[in-house]
Amino acid sequence: MNGVIHGVKGLLTFLSSPLLG
């Protein structure tokens, strides 16, 4: 379950990166 949360956080960061940058 922890791996799933880590994956979701990584995906959100990846999607938010272009918006913040």
How would you characterize the overall build of this protein?
There is one protein chain. The chain is mainly α. 90% of the residues lie in helices and 0% in strands. It has one helix and no strands. It has one helix at 2-20.
Order of helices and strands: H
Give the C-alpha Rg.
Answer: 9 Å
Low-confidence stretches: none
The amount of helix comes to over 70%
Number of strands: 0
Kindly name the structural category.
mainly alpha
Shape field: rod-shaped
Largest sheet: none
Strand content: under 5%
Mean pLDDT across the residues is: 89
The number of helices is 1
Distance between the termini: 30 Å
Features:
single chain; mainly alpha
Short summary of the structure?
The protein is an all-alpha fold and about 20 residues long. It contains one helix and no strands.
SSE topology sketch:
Elements: H1 2-20
